[in-house]
Amino acid sequence: MAEAYHYVRWRWWIKLDLEEVSEELSKKYEVEFFERPSYELELTYRKDERAELLIRSDTLRVYLSPFRAVLFQKKPAPFTPKDLELRKRVIELYPKERPTSLPMHFSSEPKFETSEKTE
Prior knowledge:
Elements: E1 6-10, H1 18-25, E2 30-35, E3 51-56, E4 61-64, E5 68-72, H2 81-93
Antiparallel strand pairs: 1-5, 2-3, 3-4, 4-5
């Protein structure tokens, strides 16, 4: 395995309820909540949507925000069954491979290996 896994997925219209997903995933995974700072006089689109979750599995990590998921590994390693389960759930929650319905910025999933324990 040459490179660490890195893949981005999207939702388009309905933002994800991070609290609900946090409750669901914290039963099996380590979940950490982040609230990014914002400022009173700031002119930023979607300023109120800066919250993120960091989910840790065996080798896979995922940042979840209301409209985007970033799946990644710090070091290249085969996915464990627990990693594969998390990957599958994130793809269900974020079904799109690009940030908008416009035909631009396609994101294709990189190849990955699985551990021998996987059946």
